[in-house]
Amino acid sequence: MAYYPRLEEIEGAYTKLHNIVEKSPLMHERGLSSTYGAEILFKREDLQITRSYKLRGAYNKISSLSKEEIKRGVVCASAGNHAQGVAYSCKALKIKGYIFMPETTPRQKLEQVKLFGGQYIETILAGDTFDAAFEEALFFSKKENRSFIHPFNDSKIIEGQATIGLEILESCKEPIDYLFLPIGGGGVASGVGSLFKMLSPSTKVIGVEPAGAASMKLSLERGEVTELPVIDRFVDGAAVKKVGELTFKICSRVLDETIAVPEGAVCSTILEMYNKNAIVLEPAGALTIAALELYAKQIKGKRVVALLSGGNNDIGRTEEIRERAQLYQGVKHYFIVRFPQRSGALLSFVRNVLGPNDDITHFSYSKKTNREKGPALIGVELSNPKDLEPLINRMINHNFIYQYINDQQDLFELLV
User: Fold this and answer.
1) What's the pLDDT at 68?
2) Domain CATH for 37
3) Element (H, E) at 139
């Protein structure tokens, strides 16, 4: 018989979590409400104790283990929010935890995990990727006969995440027309989506994935769990090659739609939320807000809730976020320019090609010799996407031979 979360199980998890998690606020967002002509509400799980909802599922799972399982300790694999949730739970329950993380994990994340887990956890660096760390953790778990705490494909994890839904409905007494939920492996979408289908069946539940890792969307389209061969790991909290069998079955039943949002749109949203609202979001935490633009017509005049899943953003990623946002917005462009065989060609480019509001943000020669006569990689930031065509026309009119590389992914990744 297929498993689906039951209300009594979710309510039991809610009681269990009462003194562990914060009841995160459901906040009215004035700016976007005005933009979309709707009532936009943010469920702020980025303000959770571990700055992510993952604590809910981790604690609910670990606290449900038998005394014998608790004695042996637990194992998990994660490079982020799940690791912090497990670490916090181990310390709260005084259980030994072994947390496997890739060797490439930033020091900031390692320190956060140690901060939440203290003496009760041991971090083990294994492999260069999450998948490698995951396999090592599974092997260790079986070898040592210790419980493996899966990040999403587990009934107790799903029921813990579903408690977010109870809080939303407690905070909002009026009917909710749309609910936007992020999808990585599908745990929170399965849990909260199931709860809404039970208590608010008229709400349209929309699952949101990053375009570069839309494994749930593809699986639902094909009618079976499908592993992606390659993914863009930028939205690291939701970049999953293969969703769970359990979460797939539940999501296929409770999600009304699943959409994929470009990573560039996510980056634009992160910057907008920080600049206008002083809200710090990690990429996965911005997914549901970025999705609103795709539903602008449908949500007009509606009451909409978007789950902000996490705020564990690494400040070292700021430049990459800004770059991706500008590329998506059409204001950042890269060219390989071959300067004409004449003296002063570079000066001519600056004076005659660049517009009054254009700015060179990147310049590097591909050769160390023949400067002003060899090819150069040039990055130009425009004030308006419409300025691109005039810029190109000026290059042609002044006899600059160029190659536009924004749309040549392999070459772009090699050079930029």
Assistant:
1) 96
2) 3.40.50.1100
3) helix 130-144
The end-to-end CA distance of the chain, in Å, is 52
Active site residue 67: no
- Token digits of residue 366: 């591909």
Q: Using an 8 Å Cβ cutoff, are 270 and 303 in contact?
A: no
Which of 43, 54, 109, 156 is catalytic? The answer is: 54
Q: What average pLDDT does the segment 43-53 reach?
A: 97
Give the tens place of pLDDT for each residue, 368-390.
555 555 688 999 999 999 999 99
Of 99, 18, 92, 88, nearest to 50 (Cα)? 88
Tell me if residue 54 is catalytic: yes
Consecutive H or E run containing 376:
strand 375-381
Q: Choose the final residue of a domain: 148, 178, 207.
A: 148
Same domain, 134 and 170: no
* Positive/negative CA dihedral, 40, 54, 318, 227: negative
Same domain, 49 and 59: no
Specify the pLDDT at position 332: 97
CA 216 to the chain's CA centroid? 14
Q: Which of 63, 155, 215, 309 is catalytic?
A: 309
